[in-house]
Design a protein that fits this description.
about 425 residues; 3 domains; three-stranded antiparallel β-sheet; 11 strands; PORR_domain; RNA binding; PORR domain-containing protein
């Protein structure tokens, strides 16, 4: 039974009619059992998270530069968006960019006072890779469209603030400028609306019935478990890292919990009592589905902090991550908490790799190449030449400098490469082995 409980890549399933006969009202009376499973470090899944910060930050900067009409940006304009980069507060944006000179080509333009201002553009390799990413997105546009639709279908009003979607756009695989380049292509499906708090929101205008099937239900159908889908008795795939010990009380609770009714995240759940394990199973189902909507089956815990009301979840809803470490793993790398869906990984590799993830892996390899080349001094001569460049197309107006002088002075201190290095770099190295 314990091996069955662990799942080993299969849906947890009981052949029992006991609860079918008792019916839903009996299940609703199950109180929330006070069982807490310990958190155990999983070094394998930690490697999935390590390196993500540098990869994401470099990708966002690449997208920003590529979106500029001139294909080049001064460092202070990039720094305005540092909140989207997720870099440590004590790390300058310019220092980070200079780690990868085969992606970002630095040159310097004198302002009206003769001060050299650092600007960055993409190298030919980075331009090629960015074009590949755009092509992959276009080829898989229906897939990304479905992801956005399903995300909105998880909410009560099929509406989310753009700011909330922005927090998830990297995980969903959306382009940096998706609001301008993607959403307007589907005016029959989406509408940008003004919310009550004066924020802008994205609303789904119709309900695609064919999308209202959760991944858990799809997997059960593929495994010819249609009866379980019909009766609502679906369990989650559960697995624990080596050395994770479960007490008998915990095993019995988890077995009982897996037998409880599964409420699809796409159906109305207002009738559920938030004080029951049935409601908790619904919350687990919501996050299980949400993580399946991400291309790499993970997201930072803080990204879902604003989703309680839209997803109709109870207070302290993220506690389900600690309560179910066999379904979710919480990595504490990068000075944050990242929730990883265990079943999506075989070791530290995704079971199903999305095409956009393949492009990101190629980008990580390019970052590794540049980082190693920089450490060997391959790019110092090139930067020395670029620092003398004086192109009228790159001139910065005096008004711009006045507006951004504080940011500029902070970012332009020193032009030598920093020795900054982190676990992120180690992850980039491993990706290309």
């Amino acid at each position: 039974m314990f091996r069955l409980l662990l799942g080993y890549g299969k849906n947890f399933h009981f052949h029992s009619n006991h609860h079918h006969k008792l019916g839903f009202r009996h299940d609703q009376r199950y109180s929330l059992v006070n069982v807490k499973l310990k958190w155990v470090k999983d070094k394998v899944l930690d490697t999935v998270v390590t390196g993500e910060r540098d990869l994401r930050a470099a990708w966002v900067i690449m997208s920003m530069i590529a979106a500029d009409p001139g294909g080049r940006l001064p460092v202070y304009r990039i720094s305005r968006h540092r909140g989207q980069l997720g870099l440590p507060q004590d790390l300058k944006v310019s220092t980070f960019i200079r780690k990868y000179p085969n992606i970002f080509d630095e040159f310097h333009v004198p302002d009206s006072g003769g001060t050299l201002v650092p600007w960055f553009r993409l190298t030919p390799d980075a331009i090629t890779l960015n074009q590949e990413a755009i092509q992959v997105f276009q080829e898989n546009q229906k897939d990304f469209l479905d992801r956005v639709c399903k995300l909105l279908m998880l909410t009560k009003d099929t509406t989310l603030p753009i700011a909330t979607i922005d927090q998830l756009k990297w995980d969903l695989g959306l382009p940096h400028d998706y609001v301008d380049s993607f959403i307007p292509n589907f005016k029959d499906l989406f509408s940008l609306i003004r919310l009550s708090n004066d924020r802008v929101g994205l609303k789904l205008l119709s309900w695609p019935k064919e999308l209202a099937v959760s991944q858990l239900e799809k997997d059960a159908i593929l495994q010819q478990m249609e009866e379980d889908v019909t009766t609502g008795r679906l369990g989650f795939r559960v697995g624990f890292p080596r050395g994770f010990g479960l007490k008998r009380k915990s095993i019995e609770w988890l077995e009982e919990w897996q037998r409880l009714p599964y409420t699809s995240p796409y159906v109305d759940s207002s009738h559920l009592d938030s004080r029951t394990d049935v409601s908790e199973k619904r919350a687990v189902g919501v996050f299980h589905e949400l993580l399946h909507l991400t291309v790499q089956k993970k997201t930072e815990r803080q990204n879902v902090s604003n989703l309680r009301k839209p997803l109709n979840l109870p207070q302290k809803f993220t506690k389900v991550f600690e309560r179910h470490p066999g379904i979710f793993y919480i990595s504490k790398k990068n000075n944050t908490q990242t929730v990883v869906l265990r079943e999506a990984y075989d070791g530290d590799r995704l079971v199903h790799i999305h095409p956009i993830s393949e492009i990101r892996n190629k980008f990580a390899c390019l970052m590794k190449e540049g980082f190693l080349g920089r450490s060997r001094g391959l790019y110092k001569q090139q930067n020395a030449a670029n620092s003398l460049e004086n192109d009228e197309l790159h001139q910065i107006t005096e008004a711009e400098l006045r507006e951004n002088r504080t940011e500029f002075e902070e970012e332009s201190e020193g032009h030598m490469f920093s020795e900054y290095e982190s676990d992120d770099t180690t992850r980039l190295f491993r990706l290309c082995e």
